[in-house]
Specification:
By secondary structure, this protein is an alpha/beta fold. The chain contains eleven helices and eight strands. An eight-stranded mixed sheet has the order 1-2-4-3-5-6-7-8, with helices on both faces. α4 crosses α9, α5 crosses α9 and α6 packs across α8.
Length: 290
């Protein structure tokens, strides 16, 4: 496991990050999914090493070891990343956003386009400011999303003090929710006990400080609207499995329709988890200068 590093942000909060892969390679900032943590990036460390990528993964506020940030919004992630980049003395880099990390990756890249070589979005979630149905997500996910959208204050407290603590004690429940209607290609991934154990570990790390950070993150997904994609001029590649039952492929299709000159790759037989395991070498290779 890579060493973890802690440093203080300008407002006094603490950020935790870890580096994986080729530490002399091209830098790629990894934006983890939901609910997850910096430990998620360890799953693609071998691919990063083989592709000459210096993979830098940071916990978002309130998850893992990064301090909670009251009233933050998704575009604020850019400020934290700028300080991380300055701390590491990096001038150019790419960003990869996986699942729930997608809005953060795109928002940050949009604000600091001059420093970003390329963005890669893998099975990317986008804004959930409109109600969703079981056709889009599983029953448990759609119920929680709709409650957070319609009754945010009550649902946030419910998640923080009741649902969250239950999920913290049982990361298997989180994984069960995420894979409730998963494709067969996804379930095969978890036949590997070491992979299963690592997912449980990274989910448990998301709740290390309790459920406040995770609850606020869910609130942001349901109340933040992506409205800048038509103006984005940078390089972006989207990757999505058509068997994905965790984040519907329609989310990527919508984003692709809004960004001019982006690249998109769809895989008929891949799901939410299997895509990264089978194609991450190709995805990371796409993020470094040719």
């Amino acid at each position: 496991m890579a060493n973890k590093y802690l440093f203080n942000l300008a407002d006094g909060r603490q950020m935790c990050f870890q580096e994986y892969g080729d530490l002399d390679g091209f830098p790629v900032i990894y934006c983890h999914g939901f609910p997850a943590s910096r430990l998620e990036a360890a799953l693609i460390a071998k691919s990063a090493q083989s592709q000459g990528i210096r993979l830098i993964a940071a916990d978002r506020p309130g998850m893992g070891l990064s301090s909670f940030c009251k009233n933050r919004i998704i575009p604020d992630w850019k400020k934290d990343l700028e300080q991380l980049i300055s701390h590491l003395k990096i001038k150019q880099f790419s960003i990869i956003g996986v699942s729930g990390g997608a809005p953060y990756a795109l928002s940050a890249a949009y604000q600091i386009q001059d420093c970003v070589y390329k963005v890669g979005i893998v099975c990317g979630l986008r804004d959930l400011h409109e109600s969703v149905s079981k056709k889009d997500f599983g029953f448990s996910e759609s119920l929680l999303i709709n409650l957070m959208y319609r009754f945010p204050i009550v649902t946030r407290q419910l998640y923080r003090f009741i649902i969250g603590p239950i999920l913290k004690r049982s990361p298997k429940t989180v994984l069960k929710i995420l894979t409730g209607s998963a494709a067969q290609s996804d379930m095969k991934i978890f036949d590997d006990q070491s992979v299963l154990n690592h997912y449980l570990k990274l989910i448990r790390e998301a709740f290390r400080q309790g459920a406040r950070g995770v609850a606020w993150e869910l609130y942001l997904y349901t109340h933040y609207k992506v409205d800048f994609l038509q103006d984005y001029k940078g390089r972006v590649s989207f990757w999505h499995g058509r068997q994905d039952k965790t984040v519907p492929v329609t989310m990527t299709e919508k984003s692709v329709s809004e960004i001019k000159n982006c690249q998109s790759y769809y895989f008929e037989n891949e799901g939410h988890f299997s895509l990264g395991f089978h194609y991450m070498d190709r995805i990371l290779a796409d993020l470094k200068p040719k």
